[in-house]
Amino acid sequence: MKWIVFGLVIVVIFIVAASFYAANFFLSVALFRNNKWYDKTGHKMMNPDNFNKGTSKYDLTEEQQNQQGEVFWQQEVAKDYWLEIGREKLYSRLIVSHPDSKKWVICVHGYRSYGKRDMAFVASKFSDQQYNILVPDLRAHGKSTGNVIGMGWLDRLDLLKWIQEVITIEPLAEIVLFGGSMGASTVMMTSGERLPKNVKGLVVDCGYSSVYSEFGAMLSSAFKLPAFPILTIANHLAKRKVGYSLKEASSISQLAQNKLPTLFIHGTGDKFVPHQMLYENMEATKGVKESLIVEQAPHLSSFIYEPDHYFDTVFEFIHRYC
Asked: What's the whole-model pTM score?
């Protein structure tokens, strides 16, 4: 009997030690900017659709959109715009193509990406609708400094600063917040803060309901590991390592304070953020809400799969409610 108890104790110690190791490893991969394992292996595991490009009609559409975005990004009126927050220096692209217009959009990119890659084409479509544009690189992304990835939670405070920058440029600005992936969750997390009346509405494409839930999905789908007890341990470690817990970084809790009109978008083929999270986010918000579901579209690809329907829906929603 003693040997059985001893054996069980050894097994428990092993499981706890292995879980602590896995939690530390996962946080290092997920929440710190420079991680060689993520660059070499992790990215492909977590979002395989990014590595399955070919010559399908969707790949050709994406290439055409990227070319249009590049031309828009490099136009003469576009300029680099910097903001210092604490010890960080944050970058954005400011494009005022319509100086007489009061319509503005802030476009927020996704996880481990940057503004130009994710949002140049989207910004060009807003410009076609007479919007002026601000596209930030979130901290620890793109040209912005920083090492800790905020997963939208830290970034919500930066987005508040960017909103104020737009209002400084144009005090009568009517601002739409548009986000994709982590950018969508950044927008949703920002929605729970006290926003100036200049912010009129939100468009969020494939955002997660919380960092805790998203990481649980990644542990299961990409790493084939159980969320418990790894994620429980990671949640406690995160506060010390990055300054916030995974559970407090919640789109749902912030949307519970949101009364702004919000359009929720998701593709059913998303392997990175489960599309079922759209329904959790929609249920949480207190404002006017509508949704756009694009069948079979991978992560942040709905505007590639159905571009006309996508942008018609976006601008009809904005014109109706914002």
From this structure: 0.95
